[in-house]
Specification:
The protein is α+β, with helices and mostly antiparallel strands. The chain has 14 helices and 14 strands. It has a domain of 114 residues. The strands form 3 sheets. Strands 1-2-3-4-8-10-9 form a 7-stranded mixed β-sheet. Strands 5-6-14-11 form a 4-stranded mixed β-sheet, with no helix packed on it. Strands 7-13-12 form a 3-stranded antiparallel β-sheet, with no helix packed on it. A hairpin with a 5-residue loop joins β5 and β6. It is globular.
Length: 409
């Protein structure tokens, strides 16, 4: 069902050992009922972002390479569409240094394993930097059992790495053990795809030795971000984390209702979330939480643009500021700092700048700058505005167009 060609790589990019293998999909189409099921799954998933996906054509268009990427401390097994692989950097940049002694893996209250903080960490702290152990497409258009494909991927890893992967949990009951481990523990990283008919999905499954131990919460205290240039993941605290506290991430979009979140988590990971944001005391509390999360989900879509507010003399001087304060309150209530709470801090600072309110602009621009410790470019921008507030491009706009002097809000 597949054509396979193995050859050593001579690329000056990521080194490949053992030999690179090539896989070509057979022209035999998948059964219609399989295509229909997968098409429905992909087209309805906003994360996959392929409303016109056709699995039949997807399979016919695939050609893969399997290889090992060598990093300083280990080799990762990687299976990629050849078009995706061709767009990777020739050489990966070194990631920024990982902090030491920030976490440990330990037992949770539910007898599983999780990641726990070894020290107090303020919001914005870098928890870890990590390369994946294995990467594979979200969907595999290969005409062989997935069990065989994953067995070959796992077989390319060192015995120690393979043993660690085998220790990861498996919550799937409808597939082979290795596929179940990948589906249970993989995070959805995004890789660039070529501009061709029927391209690969941008979402890929990546398994990490440490971050894949992080459990889900509907109000997570950490966020992970993927960087293709370093082929690594950065895990960052989104609010203060206390020593001994479990470090959690979100597996799905947490602005859905409680019922929708439970359905999605059960469908994808076969568990029911029991985090404190789900274990609410009453139906009224659930309805309030659902409404708050829905408001946060739609916040930026319904918010008037900043420039429109600045230039509209009818729109109240504090209209946007109140909206952003409300959003920060809702974010704190639902534990959803992962939604980029700092964007609201930035917006509040900009609003006060447009009102030429020096005291409040300085206070909020200072907060915005402090929240960007790991973004040197943005830190410099806010530092410039703090040293010379009138250098803020929209300084005094709202005050001018309101046509009158404004007091403190």
């Amino acid at each position: 069902m597949i054509a396979k060609d193995c050859a050593s790589s001579s690329s000056s990019g990521p080194s490949s050992s053992p030999a690179r293998c090539r896989f070509s999909a057979a022209p035999t189409p998948p059964p219609p009922h399989v295509c229909a099921r997968i098409n429905a799954q992909v087209t309805s998933d906003p994360v996959l972002a392929r409303p016109n996906f056709d699995f039949d054509q997807h399979v016919r268009s695939r050609s893969y390479t399997m290889q090992n990427f060598a990093f300083e401390d280990f080799e990762a097994a990687v299976l990629l569409d050849e078009g995706v692989e061709s767009l990777l950097p020739e050489t990966f940049h070194p990631p920024c240094p990982a902090p030491l002694y920030t976490f440990e893996i330990g037992a949770t209250e539910n007898d599983g394993l999780g990641m726990f903080a070894l020290k107090d960490m303020p919001a914005g702290s870098l928890v870890l930097v990590e390369h994946p152990v294995m990467v594979a497409p979200y969907l595999l258009g290969i005409g062989v059992p997935l069990a065989d494909v994953y067995a070959e991927i796992f077989g390319r890893l060192s015995p120690d790495l393979c043993d660690e992967l085998m220790d990861l949990s498996n919550s799937m009951e409808d597939c082979d053990l290795l596929e179940g481990i990948v589906r249970t523990n993989a995070l959805g990283i995004q890789l660039e795809v070529p501009d061709v008919p029927n391209p690969e999905l941008t979402t890929h499954r990546a398994v990490f030795l440490n971050t894949s131990r992080c459990n889900h919460s509907c109000g997570p205290n950490a966020r992970w971000e993927w960087d293709t240039n370093t082929f690594s993941l950065y895990l960052t605290a989104v609010r203060p984390i206390r020593k001994g506290e479990e470090i959690t991430i979100q597996y799905i979009a947490c602005t859905q209702s409680r019922k929708e979140r439970h359905a999605t988590l059960h469908s994808l990971y076969n568990f029911t979330c029991a985090c404190k944001y789900c274990a609410l005391p009453s139906h009224d509390a659930i309805r309030t939480s659902d409404a708050t999360r829905a408001a946060l989900e739609s916040f930026w879509r319904v918010l008037p643009p900043f420039e429109e507010w600045c230039l509209d003399p009818i729109m109240a001087p504090d209209a946007l500021i109140k909206r952003h304060f409300d959003a920060l309150k809702m974010i704190k209530q639902e534990g959803l700092q992962v939604l980029d709470a700092e964007k609201h801090v930035d917006a509040i600072a900009m609003c006060y700048g447009s009102l030429a309110d020096l005291e409040l602009f300085t206070a909020w621009a200072g907060r915005a700058k402090d929240a960007k410790l790991h973004d040197a470019k943005q830190t410099l921008v806010f530092a410039k505005w703090l040293s010379n507030p009138v250098s803020f491009p929209a300084w005094g706009w709202k005050k001018t167009f309101c046509g009158r002097e404004l007091g403190k809000l």
